[in-house]
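Table S7 (text form). Paired inputs.
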Amino acid sequence: MLSLLVQGKDLDSTIQELLKHLLAGGPESHAKIKQLVRAVTHRPLDDALSAETARRIAEIRVSPEGKEGIASFLEKRKASWCSPES
């Protein structure tokens, strides 16, 4: 799926920005999001799917990593898993 189109001269800087954004996310949350995408792909959009998606997202938010992510956002600091480059 294409989500962004950039000029060739901007490709390296765009890739670096995308990587920086990805590295800022929690590793456990990334794994859970991948599981969610796999679980809902090709399923009909219905109340059951909405409920399952909401449940999975809520589980991520209340996990230790989710709490650290929310706290770091509110405190305007990098999360504990972030490298200095992210």
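Next pair, protein 2 of 2.
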Amino acid sequence: MIPELAARGVVPDILTDQTSAHDPLNGYIPNGMTLAEAVELRKNDPKAYQEKIARCHGSARRRHVALAEDGVDTFDYGNNIRTLPFSVA
């Protein structure tokens, strides 16, 4: 959603991430994948799936930081999502 807002020039007043960071394997679908593709990759190669998720979250966190630097109040709600890109290597 953030990339689409950025493409439209929308800058929110506040930004949070309400996600299930505690379960990257089952709580997300990587960008650019259909649900069916995600289910198949998750089943056949969970490590590759989690690596895709980590890349997606790294990109999202960089966008969050950029918005914070532009004055947007940005926070997570305690799910510690900002560490997710570093947890899967």
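The mean pLDDT is 79.
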